[in-house]
Amino acid sequence: MEASSWDALRKQARKLEAQLDEQMTSYRRLVSSKPEGSVAALESGIEHLLKQLQQVNLQMQTWVSSGGSQIISHTLTRHKEILQDLTQEFYRLHSGLRVKQERSSLLEFRDYDRAKADMEDGADSAEHALLKEQATISRSSGQMDHVISHAQATLGTLVLQRSTFGGITTKISNVSSRLPTVNHILSSIRRKKSMDTIILSLVASLCTFLMLIYWLSK
């Protein structure tokens, strides 16, 4: 591939990283404060940019595996580290925000439940049980969101690690194919070692046989 292809990929990666950094800054502010309104659009935008950056990194990995220099390989490693850091931070913030929203919703529900209980003193026990069940379901839903967020973060990390190991394997295969002489030498060494072992075994067997004949002839 031409150097211009690598330059274009790296330029695209830097652009996506800059966009992600800008959106993550906004997302951090939302998580640290009390979000007003839905943050789904911002979260969706960040996830889309993360996927785009991951695809660019995979293309860069293919470029490096086809014969990139050591400097380019180090550059790719840095871009992968940036993607991994952004992915882990996003899902960590995502999980924290869900927990905060669930806690706020639960407190509001408890306040409502308490006020309703004061207004309807002596209300039917079945309705009260239903309200308690709704609170339990709400808590369970929050815990499930927390678990799913952690699972998504772990998945993102595993995908990055898989692409890294795949690139290493490809590069090793390329190096091996470019060094047929080394492979030939190694094969010759292994064959010579096998022959030496066979000869030593035959000599040892012959000596043992001769000693046995000598001992029997005495």
UniProtKB/TrEMBL annotation:
Pfam families according to UniProt: V-SNARE_C (PF12352)
Membrane-spanning residues: 197-216
Domain of life where this protein originates: Eukaryota
Record's subcellular location: Golgi apparatus membrane
GO molecular function terms listed in the Swiss-Prot or TrEMBL record: SNAP receptor activity
Gene Ontology terms: biological process: endoplasmic reticulum to Golgi vesicle-mediated transport; inter-Golgi cisterna vesicle-mediated transport; protein transport; vesicle fusion
Keywords, in A-Z order: ER-Golgi transport, Golgi apparatus, Membrane, Protein transport, Transmembrane, Transmembrane helix, Transport
Topological relation to the membrane, as annotated: Single-pass type IV membrane protein
The UniProt record lists the keyword Ribonucleoprotein: no
One GO term describing the cellular component: Golgi medial cisterna
Major localization listed first in the record, in broad terms: Golgi
Protein's job: Involved in transport from the ER to the Golgi apparatus as well as in intra-Golgi transport. It belongs to a super-family of proteins called t-SNAREs or soluble NSF (N-ethylmaleimide-sensitive factor) attachment protein receptor.
Subunit structure: Component of several multiprotein Golgi SNARE complexes.
Protein family according to the UniProt entry: Belongs to the GOSR1 family.
Protein name in UniProt: Golgi SNAP receptor complex member 1
Organism this protein belongs to: Zingiber officinale
Lineage start: Eukaryota, Viridiplantae, Streptophyta, Embryophyta, Tracheophyta
